[in-house]
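quick one: zinc ion bound model?
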Amino acid sequence: MKKSPPAPPERRTDLLREIERLARVAIFGSASETYRTCGNPGCRCHGPGPKHGPHMYVTFRGDGKTAGYYVPADAQEDIRAGIEAWQALQVALRELAVINKERVLERARERKSTP
Ligand SMILES: [Zn+2]
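yep, here:
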């Protein structure tokens, strides 16, 4: 495995800033589109006609079971952006965690070399 050079300290500051920005809007779940029948038995959706939709539906796992909710049209853009932020947050956290580990190990090495 090739060893990458240590990240500059500014990278850690940038990551912490980015993580805070992402965390403010992050939403957990995955979005899909569904088509539904409505409550009106005479409607086309109960016959051969097309069903209503697409409706944005978000599912997420919590307490071991999957839950979900429909998203109203005027919230879809924000929900989508939130889900993307959650994913970007995971990437940023992983990179930060690697830098944190290197910092801890580096400090331990320094303590060892300067008794
Ligand atoms: Zn209908």
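The radius of gyration is 23 Å.
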